[in-house]
Amino acid sequence: MENSKVKVVLGVIGADCHAVGNKILNYALNAAGFEVINLGVLVPQEEFVNAAIETDAKAILVASLYGHGEIDCRGLKDRCREAGLGDILLYVGGNLVVGKTDFTEVHNKFIEMGYDRVYEPGILPDQVVIDLKNDLGM
Amino acid sequence: MKNILLIDFGSTYTKITAVDIEKEIVLGTARGITTVETDIMEGLNQALGELFSKTGKLEFIKVLGCSSAAGGLKMVAVGLVPELTAEAAKRAALGAGAKIMGVYGNELNEYEIKEIADLNPEIILLAGGTDGGNKEVILHNARMLTTLGKDIPVIVAGNKSVAPQVVRILSESMTEVVHTENVMPKLNELNIEPARETIRGVFLRRIVEAKGLNRANQFVDRMVMPTPAAVLKAAELLGKGTQYESGLGDLMVIDIGGATTDVYSIAKGDPTKNNVALRGLPEPFAKRTVEGDLGMRYSATALVRAASVKRIADHAGVSEDNVEAYVKKVEENIEYLPQNDVERKVEIAMGRVCTCLAVERHVGQLETVFTLAGSAYVQKGKDLSEVQTVVGTGGVIVHHEQPNEILKGATYSESTPTMLKPGCPKFLIDEDYIMASMGLLGEEYPDIAVRMMKKYIVRR
Questions:
Q1: CB–CB contact A54 B131 (8 Å)
Q2: CA B299 from centre of chain
Q3: How many CB atoms lie within 10 A of CB A78?
């Protein structure tokens, strides 16, 4: 019953091509019973939005590792709103800014940008699965 | 004696090819002027007369036909996200040999419904949503299409969860609503073959009748498909071969016409270089694109607009005035052929630019992205850089003294390094203009069709 599975969109945003974490998350989310639409690496914002519209996904999970996450992730929430996806869950995680910055600051910045959950490096996929299920009331 | 007659009812000419499938030879080809309005048989009889004058009277065991008469199969494709299901629907329609009048995404509004009604397509392909994905938009669009005020066949190829509902809604006002598999069952997974087949089925049942082609029915055993679909079929056979007859491998076909230029590629088009990420919709193995603004006669002015007078003049090594004068001449008289050296040069340059632009729109592109780990590449579309064979067909190429000069436009150029065009392919010419015929023949005799194409489509 593949089609009754909750769909989530996953991808590494912007000009970032780190593929390993993406594959691990894909595996973990699949194992947890989600249908993962994995867009892979180097994914522009509009592709996350388009994929979510077409598949009726419930969450978009954005990863960024190369330190330019702030530039790449800004504006995604607005695009979602514009596309009629105002309610979709937005998660972001990875090495979001360059250099050593206090994570609380990073966290707050991304929450302000409209993300529902912000993960620092080292968080295990299990945590993401637990949060997703909670947020979606599963 | 095992003779077969293959007919292509085109918009200007009815072209016929007689083949002997025992000896695997072309007995002869001929053409007559198509007259859809009065009697489709007129042009056919004219062509037959011409053929028999060359070959003597022939008997045929079978007669197969394809058609692009009266502008071909006109379609409108509707999907959800323009880059996704709307694009998938468009590709399915192109692969079926249709002429795309419009592509619509998202929820249709009243203006667009008016527009579609004015376009008066012969088939509407309605897609939208992956299986289990978005349902609302395709339902909305089905309801909107019922307000067209016209009875147009609709093929439903969207989200399977609501397909029955969509069919029910449309059936309220349309007599022919056909359901087929989703063109995009999963995100970024193309499934256009079932839609292509369904389009062909509807084309044959309704359109052939509407265009008076059924009047040729007593003579023709079977109308098989729209002409571009026959060419695509031939290209696929020539590239892939059959179980018993090897093909030529990956190839491209360039078909330059008076009004449009069609480009076909038979290749997976995966990246040939390292460190390349693929983006965008996956590409169909057998792909057709058609450029309505690139042609040698009806579209000559549009071609000049797309390419610029200067570019054609530079290629030809003549003045811009020469180009403008020639373009005016051929558009006023589509039968006109170059009469002197300058005109011949312009004609070649036009063909070359036509090929160049049409192929650039067909092939994929490589984009460099700079990352902290060095540069990486993103590929959109097909990488055809290692395609070894480019086949030229269509009147302009076939009847040309220097077809290779025209086909060179299909190859990689340093001025456009991001275009994934073939590096150094060999050029084959469809000298007897048999590709569409071979696509028809290939429906029933694929091995013979492959062998005959290998024999008749050669280097010049």
A1: no
A2: 16
A3: 13
CA-closest candidate to residue B254, choices B333, B118, B373, B359 = B359
Indicate whether B446 pLDDT > 90: yes
Q: Choose among A37, A42, A53: nearest Cβ to B80.
A: A53
Cα gap B312→B22, rounded to integer Å: 46
Q: Distance (Å, rounded) from C-alpha B429 to C-alpha B413?
A: 22
Mean pLDDT value of segment A29-51: 92
pTM for this one?
0.84
What's the rounded Cα separation, in Å, for the pair B186 and B129? 9
Q: Is pLDDT at B52 greater than 70 in this prediction?
A: yes
Question: Quick check: A50 and B83 CB within 8 A?
Answer: yes
User: Is A78 a known active-site residue?
Assistant: no
- Identify the residue whose tokens are 């050593």: A100
- Helix (H) and strand (E) counts for chain A? 6, 5
Is residue B78 within 8 A of residue B124, CB to CB? The reply is yes
Verify whether residue A18 is a known catalytic residue. yes
The single residue listed with the structure tokens 């709307």 is: B86
For residue B375, the SS3 value is strand
**CB-based contact B397:B256 (threshold 8 Å):** yes
| pLDDT, position A2 | 45
Which secondary structure element, helix H or strand E, spans residue B136, and what is its range?
helix B136-145
Output the DSSP codes for B74-118.
EEEEE-SSTTTHHHHHHHHHHHTTEEEEEEE-SS--HHHHHHHHH
- Is the pLDDT reported for residue B12 higher than 80? no
Calpha distance B59→A19 (Å, rounded): 64
CA neighbor of B436 nearest in space, from B460, B422, B416, B453: B453
**How many contacts (CB atoms, under 8 Å) link A and B?**
68
- Residue B247 token pair: 């093909």
pLDDT in tens, A14-29: 877 778 889 999 999 9
Q: Decide: helix, strand or coil at residue B162.
A: helix
3-class SS at B167? Answer: helix
Which residue among the candidates A18, A116, A131, A135 is catalytic per the annotation? A18
Q: How far is the C-alpha of B150 from the C-alpha of B297, rounded, in Å?
A: 33
3 state SS for B169-203? HHHCCCCCEEECCCCCCECCECCCHHHHHHHHHHH
Could you tell me the two tokens for B35? 């007259």
